[in-house]
Design a protein that fits this description.
single chain, 479 residues, alpha/beta, nine-stranded mixed beta sheet, six-stranded parallel beta sheet, 15 helices, 15 strands, 17% strand, globular
Length: 479
């Protein structure tokens, strides 16, 4: 949801339709095929025969919130490859809505994941773990011990001990484990890997990588939302940027060696509250509700009034489909209506991490909340014979070997005509790979498996330790 500059003139109220349409424009990738050009079934027949399975892989969705719904769409779109056979979620509306979508019988709709395991025999092939971050380990371990393959949303866990435990249990029980590091799977990422591996750019020297969180997204998820406090979720680098640390490790192709890091909660605090806001603690009662960039009235209420019912408004109403009435009630009573300067958040709103990889390759990573772009990563890769400038859509390659540098633009292959457009279509590519891995009993389809994911998660813990101790921290392998 990105406001155009025209909507931010002093004394004017941000325009909700522009707010929404700009967000949709960012989400819809420029290389995405136009709707109606080809059916998904026809696309699969022409381009995806290697991902077909003999019979549908049976999925249990553990956590039917946003991420659980996203992953379940793959079964809707490819019923011959995957099917949702059970769902567990403590919120009645969520579990019943998903059950209805996938025609799950009522006897396989559960309030808790523990209820699923009351069955003596396995009722599915895979448990898709999409509970809150702090609640990943227990169900993942329990289902793995019963022989279920595991797909767990990132982060895999919020402590080093639990990450190690999850990997160990999956390996001991000989089940596949994939973590939702979806960014590895896109044609965009694979093209960057291909270019670097070709040798045409020479030696990788250094990388700059930006994760622009987006000002409204930061306010929604990390100031008002469920990831606002470390003791209730996890620290910001793990919650938001474990994607990026993992992606950088994958792209560079070498282990991390040491870290330094700096960051703080510089703006989303009481000291930064505008004097004109007075004693208001909620946006709907604030005199700045029409001009504040973080106004809940604009982000949620004006958005639902414009007809947009998806993210983020769907996140603040959990017991029904969003409407003007229940969104307004949520802003009056719930956490999402609070002033961003009066919340109990404690995670950082900006952070930099400096990484040294083996071989002396360096990386400067920056996570910033205060950006127009929303999660559209920007990367520069500096090599001895060329440079890549990557914007999550396309790759600009400057080859130093030509006179003055030869420039080429590389656009990854179009994604399938799927509804799973999140993360540049990465959600789709992860599910395609994982379902094929299980259906064909071939873990080579998984490129975010246990060893790689454990290493990158431990790197995130080390980087955060560097920030908190104001020191350079060496990477230490787990015992």
């Amino acid at each position: 949801l990105v406001l155009s500059m025209a909507d931010q003139k002093e004394g004017t109220k941000p325009n909700a339709s522009s707010f929404t349409s700009s967000y949709v424009a960012q989400v819809k990738r420029p290389h995405e095929p136009a709707p109606g050009t080809i059916s998904l079934e026809e696309y699969a027949r022409q381009h995806e025969t290697e991902y077909e399975t003999e019979k549908p892989v049976r999925l249990i969705i553990v956590g039917a919130g946003n991420r659980g719904k996203v992953y379940s769409v793959y079964a809707e779109e490819h019923p011959k490859r995957a099917t949702v056979v059970a769902v567990a979620d403590p919120i009645k509306f969520r579990r019943e809505t998903m059950a209805k979508t996938h025609n799950v019988p009522s006897e396989y709709v559960y309030t808790t994941w523990e209820d699923v395991l009351q069955h003596k025999d396995r009722i599915a092939d895979v448990a898709v773990i999409c509970t809150h971050d702090r609640d990943h380990t227990a169900p993942a371990v329990a289902f793995a011990q019963r022989g279920y393959h595991i797909l767990v949303e990132k982060p895999m866990a919020v402590t080093e001990e639990d990450c190690i435990k999850m990997v160990k249990v999956c390996e001991e029980n000989k089940v596949m484990l994939a973590v939702g590091h979806v960014m590895r799977y896109t044609p965009y990422t694979q093209k960057i890997k291909e270019l670097l591996a070709s040798g045409e750019l020479g030696q990788i020297i250094s990388v700059q990588h930006l994760e622009p969180v987006g000002w409204w997204h930061a306010a929604h998820s990390y100031v008002r939302g469920i990831w606002r406090r470390e003791d209730q979720a996890t620290f910001m680098l793990m919650a938001k940027s474990c994607h990026d640390i993992d992606w950088l490790r994958y792209i560079v192709g070498k282990p991390t060696k040491r870290f330094s890091s700096f960051g703080s909660r510089s703006h989303f605090n009481k000291e930064s509250k505008p004097k004109e806001a007075g004693d208001a603690t909620r946006c709907l009662e604030c005199p700045l509700a029409h001009t504040c960039p973080y106004s809940a009235e604009t982000i949620y209420l004006d958005t639902i009034k414009s007809g947009h019912t998806g993210f983020p408004v769907q996140s603040i109403v959990t017991e029904d489909f969003p409407s003007v009435e229940n969104v307004k009630q949520a802003l009056q009573d719930g956490p999402y209506g609070r002033c961003v300067y009066e919340c109990d958040n404690d995670v950082v709103d900006h952070q930099v991490v400096n990484i040294e990889f083996e071989g002396g390759i360096t990386c400067a990573f920056s996570m910033v909340s205060f950006t127009e772009l929303v999660c559209m990563r920007q990367t520069r890769i500096f090599c001895s014979q060329g440079e890549l400038v990557c914007d999550n859509h396309k790759i600009e390659w400057t080859d130093f070997r030509g006179p003055g540098g030869v420039r080429r633009t590389i656009t990854p292959e179009p994604m399938p005509p799927s509804r799973m457009t999140g993360h540049g279509g990465a959600d789709y590519y992860l599910m395609r790979a994982f379902v094929a891995a299980v259906g064909k009993n071939d873990p080579s389809y998984i490129i975010s498996g246990p060893a790689e994911t454990l290493e990158s998660h431990l790197a995130v813990f080390h980087a955060e330790r560097a920030r908190k101790t104001n020191s350079v921290v060496d990477m230490v392998a787990p015992k």
